[in-house]
Amino acid sequence: MSDVRVSIVVPTYNERDNLEELFDRIARSLSGYDYEIIIVDDDSPDRTWERAMELSNKYPVRVIRRTDEKGLSSAVIRGFREASGDVFVVMDADLQHPPEKIPELLRAIEEGADIAIASRYVRGGGVKNWYWYRKLISRGAILVGRVALPKIRNVKDPVSGFFALRREVVEGVELNPVGFKILMEILIKGNYRKVVEVPFTFGLRKAGESKLSGKTIFNYIKHVIRLMRWEGELDRIIKFSIVGLSGVLVNEGFLWLFVRKFGINKMIANVIATELAILNNFTWNDLWTFKDLRSVPFYRRIIRFHIAALMGAAVQLAIYGGLLYAGVDYLLANLVGIGFSFIVRFLFNRNVTWG
Ligand code: GDD
Ligand code: MN
After folding, report:
1. 75 CB less than 6 Å from ligand 1?
2. Domain span at 270
3. CB 48 within 8 A of CB 15
4. Is any ligand 1 atom within 6 A of the Cβ of residue 348?
5. Are residue 242 and residue 123 in the same domain, yes or no?
6. What is the CB neighbour count within 10 angstroms for residue 122?
7. Does residue 128 sit in the same domain as residue 198?
8. Which of 231, 254, 283 marks a domain boundary?
9. How far apart are CA 334 and CA 342, in angstroms?
10. Alpha-carbon gap, residue 272 to 255, rounded angstroms
11. Is 70 exceeded by the pLDDT of residue 212?
12. 64: Cβ below 6 Å to ligand 1?
């Protein structure tokens, strides 16, 4: 890796007292590497930029003091723009990201990864001193992101703030500077093939305090939805809904036809009409909603679509029954059941039938 230049991008806001240890530990970890550290500071009141400037006599540090713009992601993007390296590393200044992990990330890149993530959620990784509910929120948020964005479903920690990437991954890519989860933005929009996750323990903040707070969750959800739109996943949900509605019409139409015109028993007529509706929905989803995802053979798609329908019906019935038992109004209970059935069917079809 000695012939490769590394740019370490560190966004900072009020991190003055962490800089010296950070630079020192980076220097020890990367001796023998050609590297630069790029501090992108948003004009911190504690004059982090000034301290970084002082330390640049001793360490290979460049300081960007921004006065016109604020925000974690936009700081990282700015750092990329200024970076001269072939490989970029992104990390926090507060030493929750141990600099000693950087060589491992670089090795993963050297061995062929385009993006190497320091991950809390692969075997050997973890977090220090988090309450169970903090872990639960973190895990839950990640699960939502992975389920909503199939492109990143194999990444265990897509919101890590500690990662390395080849320059080409983000070069020429328009990254949205809103939100904190710059890695997720990169994983969705970047140019890459191989992602590797290296376990690490998210440590304790050395000095100062965290800037990310409660409304982060709300912003995160907004970010996920924006990325879903970018990926076209939101369009799929709309198409899937339209197809579902068309199925209701087909179902009712045939039921009427069979009962009124052919005099078929109402139970049997319902079964046939339902099957015809399922076939209608399958056809339109196959030709329209998921037309770009037809990789499994036709007979498997159609079988799996039926499994999804059955699962949806089972979920709907179970929730309906459960809520009735809990004393919920039957119409409301049915609506909630239908909602969950929709989610189950969409996710199964998106990830398995057309996965
Ligand atoms: N330039 C700039 N502008 N830097 C910022 C800003 C900002 O508006 N807000 C935060 N930072 C810097 C901090 O100074 C620190 O170096 C780094 O970004 C992370 O901020 P923290 O406040 O320490 O965040 P955290 O510890 O709560 O969150 C970290 O862990 C998350 C995973 O749980 C971050 O690494 C997140 O990116 C990560 O998702
Ligand atoms: Mn932190």
Report:
1. yes
2. 233-353
3. yes
4. no
5. no
6. 17
7. yes
8. 231
9. 12
10. 8
11. no
12. no
> Do 42 and 134 reside in the same domain of the chain?
yes
Share of the chain above pLDDT 90, in %: 91
Please tell me the distance from the alpha carbon of residue 189 to that of residue 350, in angstroms, as a whole number: 20
Token couple for 339: 């909602």
Task: Tell which atom from ligand 1 comes closest to the C-alpha of 182.
Answer: 37
Tokens of 246: 């068309």
Indicate whether residue 180 lines ligand 1 (CB < 6 A).
yes
112 in the same domain as 17: yes
Nearest CA to ligand 1 atom 29: 161
Give the percent of the chain with pLDDT over 70.
Answer: 99
pLDDT at 242 over 70: yes
Question: Position 24: which residue type?
Answer: D
Question: Is the same domain home to 259 and 348?
Answer: yes
Asked if 251 and 122 sit in the same domain, the reply is no
Structure-model confidence comparison of residues 179 and 95, the more confident one: 95
Instruction: Note whether 158 and 120 are within 8 A (CB).
Output: no
Average pLDDT value for residue range 247-265: 96
CATH number of the domain encompassing residue 79: 3.90.550.10
Q: What's the pLDDT band for 1 if we cut at 50, 70, 90?
A: low
Residues 34 and 163 in one domain: yes
Cite the DSSP H helix spans in 31-100: 48-55, 72-82
Q: Are 184 and 240 found together in one domain?
A: no
Q: State how far the Cα of 346 lies from the Cα of 297, in Å rounded to an integer.
A: 19
Q: Angle, nearest 10°, between helix axes 298-325 and 266-284?
A: 120
8-state DSSP, 288: I
Token pair of 195, please? 């992602």
- On whether the pTM is more than 0.85, the answer is yes
CA 298-303-306 angle, 5° bins: 130
Looking at residue 151, its pLDDT comes to 95
